Amino acid sequence: MRYFKCGKCKAPYKIDPAKFKSPKLEVICPKCSTRNVLTLGPVLSIQQEGKFAQVGLKNGVQVIGRKTEKPNVNGHILISDEYVSRIHAKVFMEFREEKVFFFIEDLGSLNGTYNKNKQRLKEGIRYPFIPGDFFIVGLTKISIQINS
Ligand SMILES: [Zn+2]
Known about the structure:
Layout: E1 2-5, E2 12-15, E3 24-28, E4 35-39, E5 41-48, E6 51-56, E7 60-66, E8 77-79, E9 89-96, E10 99-106, E11 113-115, E12 127-128, E13 134-137, E14 140-147
Parallel strand pairs: 7-8
Antiparallel strand pairs: 1-2, 3-4, 5-6, 5-14, 7-9, 9-10, 10-12, 11-13, 13-14
The structure holds zinc ion.
């Protein structure tokens, strides 16, 4: 659950971000009736020493891989990290009964994908990727956040 403030009267209201399929959400303020447009969206946070980036997640499957000199493959999430394989892992975003679910799967990467308990994921198996949780690919920490 997240809290948003009305842009006009600053009244707070609660929203369950897992319930919205669209990245844009319209909310009518219960206090002053102002229409607020909130941009919600799941992002993959990519954290490295001294660096931080966020990439929007799309419905379906996205491949995580190492950024190389070669032209970018459309739709792939590319990470500048020499310990990340060119095709490293997949992130899934799926909707079921109005809720969003995320999964991660290692694609046979050389250095592996690890969970927060430093356990290596088995290749080809989907693991739940819960927002706020993190995984390690190479020297990079990845997590999912649902932005307001
Ligand atoms: Zn208001």
